[in-house]
């Protein structure tokens, strides 16, 4: 029996996690990000004119019982900030969900809009920052303001076996929050790199990959085989435990 056949698709969140996400969507802790996400919605590019933007913090998405947690950077101004679902409606999301589908974590390879039927199994996607930042660069204080949400997600998800950081910030934040909630005794943050791997404890492993941003995918710094290999490694680690 395949791994996909053993684990059903999860549509609902456990109550505490759902409550956390609901509270997150009303967050206004970062004035700069609040102003930016709303300004983007008021003056979208021509290709999105007439569409209603989410323009709020974008909640995490996936299976609340997952063994894999993917930690991204932040929603894209015209991706998650527009659609209301993380990594949805932008090219980075095209890469991510295609890879998740190939690895058996998603029921389809595309994430176009919030009602497109996409479901994840055994995987959960979150972010270091839940609001779209100018130039895709959240400030340190903005990352700190958002950190309590990720800390609480780790506490509410005891089945996790792999943390996968997309890009250096996602990787570093994943390690930092794991250490803060007591999931590792490592004192030194592991060095980020594509394919980086660090054992956090006897059950939890941290992986790193280049972010599937256009800057990386258009230049060939990140290729599909490279990206797929990281998810294959995640599956191997999960099934080993």
Q: Helix- and strand-based class? A: alpha/beta
Discrete helix count: 9
- Give, in spatial order, the strands making up the sheet with the most strands: 1-3-2-4-6-5
Percent of residues in helices = 25-40%
Low-confidence stretches: 1-13
Order of helices and strands: HHHEEHHEHEHEEHH
Explain what you see.
- The protein is α/β, with parallel strands linked by helices and 241 residues long.
- The chain has a single domain (13-240), classed as Uracil-DNA glycosylase-like domain (Uracil-DNA Glycosylase, subunit E), CATH 3.40.470.
- The chain is 40% helix and 10% strand.
- It contains 9 helices and 6 strands.
- A 6-stranded mixed β-sheet has the order 1-3-2-4-6-5.
- The chain is globular and about 50 Å long.
- It starts with a helix and ends with a helix.
